[in-house]
Amino acid sequence: MPHHGSNDDFLRQQLVEQFQRRDKTLDVTPDALRKQMDDLRESFGATGEFPKGQLHPTDEGAIRFGIAAHNGKVIMDFGTEVVWLGLDPKDAENVAQSLLEKARQARNQRK
After folding, report:
1. Residue 80 belongs to what domain range?
2. What is the C-alpha to C-alpha distance for residues 58 and 49, in angstroms, rounded to an integer?
3. Structural domains counted in the chain
4. What is the pLDDT of residue 1?
5. Within a domain: 3
6. 59: pLDDT strictly greater than 60
7. Pick from 24, 76, 79, 21: which is nearest to 46 by CA?
């Protein structure tokens, strides 16, 4: 059964840690980490833009979201409530690739 939640602090921390592993030059002081988390929080969610046009009248525009592995689970953070998500084929392939990568990471976390 899927999981859901309304507290995003743990996911933001996980995403920051993943970015830090990729870029060893990131500042990891508490103040810098707090700013990075705030920047991530602001970067997720609806953009209000329609870069590829409006799919239909209920389309609210583009959305930025994150995918992370945490405690043996794959977490998707949309930054806002989402009822549906429409992707063109290339974007769907990118999300699928990210989900598979995070699934492997989550599986390894359980060992």
Report:
1. 9-109
2. 14
3. 1
4. 34
5. no
6. yes
7. 79
DSSP string, the chain: -----S--HHHHHHHHHHHHHH-TTS--SHHHHHHHHHHHHHHSEE-S--TT--SSTT----EE-EEEEETTEEEEE-SS--S-----HHHHHHHHHHHHHHHHHHHHHT-
Amino acid making up residue 2:
P
Kindly state the tokens that stand for 85.
């998500």
Residues contacting 72, CB < 8 A, separation 6+: 106, 107, 109, 110
Q: Is residue 88 one of the residues assigned to a domain?
A: yes
Which residue in the block uniquely carries the two structure tokens 């991530």?
40
> Does the predicted TM-score (pTM) go above 0.70?
no
Determine the angle formed by the axes of helices 30-43 and 9-22, rounding to 10 degrees: 110
Using the predicted structure, report yes or no on whether residue 46 has a pLDDT greater than 90.
no
Chain centroid to CA 60? 18
Q: Residue 70 carries which side chain, given as an amino acid letter?
A: H
Domain contains 54: yes
β-pairing, 45-46 with 66-70?
A: unpaired
